[in-house]
Design brief:
Blueprint (H helix, E strand, L loop, with lengths): L1 H10 L9 H6 L22 E3 L10 E2 L2 E2 L3 E3 L3 E6 L2 H15 L3 H7 L5 E9 L2 E9 L8 E8 L10 H9 L2 H7 L1 E9 L6 E4 L1 H6 L3 H10 L9 H20 L3 E3 L3 E7 H17 L22 E6 L2 E4 L26 H11 L7 H22 L7 E6 L4 E3 L9 H20 L6
Antiparallel strand pairs: 1-4, 2-3, 4-5, 5-7, 6-7, 8-9, 8-12, 9-10, 11-16, 12-15, 13-14
This protein binds MYO-inositol-(1,3,4,5,6)-pentakisphosphate and adenosine-5'-diphosphate.
């Protein structure tokens, strides 16, 4: 991306004002719920395109000089080539999803990358059709990306015998055990900033316990504590996908993937401030002024803007003690209303089946930690944008159900359940984290 912006600056074609890295990367994220938002590029800016260096799986080969991988545009979108029949079906899938009035499909719209239509584009002298999608890693400084292909069955009803055999032979142990597989991921090491890439050959060898460890590695949790804030960001989206997959009968998603993305630069900030807080034994007494926050007026929060040594102060409520020790002798009062993806995560968290047996014991502690974490995150960022998310991608083998075919897609649901369970298990490891 930096090459692109450098070029536009030199040619004087960019209409963007120069901004600091921080502004460019963190403060401009779009928050629209609608997947068909308007293109991001200013009308006068020329579209600049290059091979997408952040692609961790899928088609990438070059045939002659025809590049089969994704392209990155300088307007926050990526372009996915439409070459095979299955990819043509993917266009139809997005087009139908865009206009459908079916409630289940409307819900799915919020779980996939934003779709901006399709277009012809000439790259390296070859004209091709492309699907235009939101780049989920946009503005990330150190994007950590994992592609998780969902389902024991990864071939669609139109697959040939040969294709079925090929699919059955790949990632066999992993798919059998977990109902998903990992065709690729990349992670920036928190300590060194080094980028480590893991391709499909690595993914094909994964099975048993190594699968969970690969996910832990992706989360920068090898030899270090997993970050509760990061896990909750992922879970807030994963629970939505899980809830949808438990009910929906509209579509069968063969070979679709979850694309997990987070910014290691933001994770590093989060860990460093946690470390500082732990060392000081309390949160910082003075907080730099923020222009926007989760708790700005109108955001629905009762946060007063003040933080004391005991934690954030809420309007009309007592300040929140941060130490888990204090829980044993304090009566629990519900947290203030906060409208954000975080509060949705908390709501899902409280109602999730997997935690019901621990419900009474853990709830008050979780809520207390959680409220503190919300403040920590909003303190670190001038906007409340999450720096980790997950979306469903790759609908080349997706099929809409007719009325007679309507039933739950067990193949997809099962894979999601198992993946969510791993994240919930990781989250339990962080139960003692107080931010
Ligand atoms: O060889 P194919 O034709 O089955 O290609 C696979 C692609 O299938 P498709 O062409 O869309 O039907 C397949 O594409 P989809 O993700 O299914 O769209 C993958 O790229 C697959 O690689 P992997 O399983 O992720 O390691 C590709 O598999 P390999 O390159 O690992 O064989
Ligand atoms: N919306 C997106 N934002 C960022 N990266 C994406 C997006 N969609 C796909 N990718 C990247 O491209 C890879 C392949 O995408 P996918 O749709 O699965 O293509 P294929 O059909 O070739 O398998 C993903 O693993 C991911 O790295």
């Amino acid at each position: 991306m930096s090459d692109v912006s450098e070029k536009s600056r030199r040619s004087g074609s960019s209409v963007r004002r120069q901004r600091s890295i921080y502004q460019v990367h963190y403060c401009m994220r779009r928050q629209d719920a609608d997947m068909t938002a308007r293109p991001l590029l200013m009308p006068t800016s020329p579209l600049e395109v290059q091979a997408y260096a952040r692609q961790v799986a899928g088609h990438r080969k070059t045939e002659d000089t025809k590049y089969l991988g994704l392209l990155q545009c300088n307007n926050g979108t990526i372009m996915k080539p439409i070459i095979k029949e299955s990819q043509k079906r993917e266009v139809d899938f997005y087009e139908h999803l865009k206009t459908s009035s079916d409630a289940e499909l409307q819900e799915l719209r919020g779980l996939v990358a934003k779709y901006f239509g399709n277009r012809k584009y000439t790259y390296n002298g070859f004209e091709q059709d492309y699907i235009i999608l939101e780049d989920l890693t946009e503005r990330m400084l150190e994007p950590c990306i994992m592609d998780v292909k969902i389902g024991k069955r990864t071939w669609d009803p139109l697959a040939t015998e040969e294709k079925i055999k090929n699919e059955q032979s790949k990632y066999a142990a992993c798919k059998q055990q977990y109902g998903f597989c990992i065709p690729g991921f990349q992670v920036y090491r928190l300590s060194t900033g080094k980028l480590c890439k893991y391709n499909k050959d690595y993914g094909k060898r994964l099975h048993g316990h190594a699968v969970k460890e690969a996910i832990r590695n992706y989360l920068n949790g090898i030899g270090a504590t997993l970050c509760r804030a990061l896990l909750l960001q992922f879970l807030s989206e994963l629970w939505k996908i899980q809830k949808w997959s438990r009910r929906q009968t509209a579509v069968r998603l063969y070979s679709a993937s979850l694309l997990l993305v987070y910014d290691a630069a933001r994770l590093r900030d989060c860990c460093q401030s946690k470390e500082l807080t732990a060392r000081a034994g309390c949160r910082p007494a003075t907080v730099p002024r923020r222009r926007h926050s989760l708790h700005s007026v109108g955001s629905g929060s009762n946060f007063s803007g003040q933080i004391t040594s005991k934690g954030p102060v809420y309007k009309k409520l007592q300040s929140v003690p941060l130490s888990p020790m204090s829980l044993s002798h304090s009566s629990f009062s519900p947290p203030p209303p906060i409208n954000s993806p975080w509060s949705e995560a908390l709501a899902s968290f409280n109602h999730n089946h997997s935690f019901e047996h621990n419900y009474e014991n853990k709830l008050s502690k979780i809520k207390m930690n959680y409220r503190a974490m919300l403040d920590q995150l909003s303190y670190d960022s001038p906007t409340p944008n999450p720096w980790g998310t997950v979306k469903v991608i790759d609908f080349a083998h997706a099929f809409f159900n007719s009325e007679e075919e309507k039933q739950i897609d067990e193949n997809f649901r099962e894979g999601i359940e198992n993946f969510v369970e791993i994240f919930e298990c990781f989250l339990r490891e962080t139960d003692d984290q107080v931010l």
